[in-house]
Amino acid sequence: MTKQILDYLGVDMSVEATSAIRLLASTLILAPAVAGLALQALLGIALYKGWKTFGENSFYIITVQLMWCDVCALMLDLYVAFPLILTGTQYMGNSTALYYVPLAFEGVAFNGIFMFSSFLTINRFVLFIFPSTHAKIFTSLGTKM
């Protein structure tokens, strides 16, 4: 069915990307991933320094969890997306352990980023609009690491 659709649209899948396009595309994956990991490292240092002071704060706890989801997603971009785009081949083959398990972790990481970002937004909204409700709902009970 997919081949019929591609034929109908006039798409020729036998055309390969040039090495210049592969290099550009892989650089566009590599540069933001490395910059993101560097920024996450700085955030991690700041969060580690303030752990004793802010460890009970719900914003702090959510931020730590969001940071780990970001790190997981960025590392998997470097492990899967960067080499795949640079080489143009799936160098891991169909290995479940080397390819599909990391992709499952990437799905978990992106869902975590979405959920923790939403949770953080709700947390801040409730804090500024309903401060008394915030104190009851967002406690560190059960979220200690």
Automatic annotation (TrEMBL):
InterPro entries xref list: 7TM_GPCR_serpentine_rcpt_Srx
Q: Which UniProt keywords apply?
A: Membrane, Transmembrane, Transmembrane helix
Transmembrane helix as a keyword? yes
Taxonomy, superkingdom? Eukaryota
Residues crossing the lipid bilayer are: 20-47, 59-85, 97-122
What positions does the domain 7TM GPCR serpentine receptor class x (Srx) occupy?
Answer: 56-144
Q: What's one Pfam family here?
A: 7TM_GPCR_Srx
Q: What is this protein called?
A: 7TM GPCR serpentine receptor class x (Srx) domain-containing protein
